[in-house]
Fold this protein.
Amino acid sequence: MSQQPLHFMPNDGFRDRAKSVVENPFLRQSFRGAMDFLMSKRAAQFPDPVELESLRSLGEQIRQYNLSRLPELLVQLESNLTRNGVQVHWAETPEEANAIILGICQKVSAKLMVKGKSMVSEEIELNHAAEAAGIGALESDMGEYIVQLAHEKPSHIIMPAIHKTKEEIARLFAENVPGVEYTDNVDALIQIGRNVLRQKFLEADVGLSGVNFAVAETGTLCLVENEGNGRMCTTAPPIHIAITGIEKIVEKLEHVPPLYSLLTRSATGQNISTYFNMISGPRKPGEKDGPGEVHLVLLDNGRSQAYADEQLRKTLQCIRCGACMNHCPVYTRIGGHAYGTTYPGPIGKIVSPHMLGLEATADMPTASSLCGACGEVCPVKIPIPELLVRLRTESFSAPKANPAMRGQGAGHRPLISAIWRAWATVYGNPGVYRAVSWLTSRFHWLTPRRQGGWTRVRTPLQPAPKRLRDLIKEKH
């Protein structure tokens, strides 16, 4: 199969996309209202701060423990899944993952793949690859189905269509679903989507899902969902393909409940999700339902790069709850599409550079106020602000012979580096500082009106005509 190029938006358009949202009062109001709602729901689930911190610490310890043993746990997972009858596949790149999945589909002459919610399938651009191979790929999560009809990407990892109004969805259904008339009644819209998808579950040759937790000791794939579409995707079609990143592994079943509690309460403000699926193999002789084949695709796509560095490894603790996005002042103002990558918001800023390289994501680590809200609400205590500073350093420092990250030094500019070295020299030497401050105050009128990115949204910086030390000397 020929390699399909990924369809991520260009990094150099990030500022323009963000600007267009900021200048749209309707979108700003919609995002603000949605994020306020999600923040209040999460806060209601954690009324006791002591219990919250205890649970967060436990979640952090579980994730760090399992990541510390990741290589051996992956071997154990493969062994137990194989024993259970699940076929395990390894993919280093998105192209390899697509080739594996489409190869399985082509082996059985599949015409339709019905998909449960899977951000990893978005990460590898599976829908584009399937379309190019002549295989239909239909999203069955209601939010994902809506953005697929609109030919868009999800704008949030938990609520893909959060940027859409009911009127926009009503128009989408009326224009794209045969026999449907315009209605903006939410219950009616949900029912329209259900009627379309219900038949597709029965017609599909292959069902695809993500994985929230993969349990090594039992060879079990755990799937968290609210709509029941995940259960339909994994049981109705004759073949089930699951895809996940290599970091989603835990050693024991007892590690799942604390992470599950943190996930649902942090993501949607629920005590527990409507459905929790545990899949340990294909249909056995005598059983009346379930797929005849189960496959698991384990994807790397830059994760091993993050794993190799002790600090960057903390990126892989993520359980994909989206709480950092809901509390981020930047995401709240520009939404998910401005980032142009599968994972937006704070988590996207630290995950995407590993997947796409720093060359393609140079603006992302700097699109943060470093207010720390993301780190404070992360249920597994990922130090996101610290990682953003590290990524900025990797991006803007001079290129190294053996870099820790692909694209290290992509944002390096010799002139900018020289300016900062000069700044450090001035502020590190009192005598030089006094001389420079005297000169800049006397010749402040020579300050340029255009000062790069600063004056794009701010007034120019201009030294005062008199220094503070001069004013104090005059007064006394």
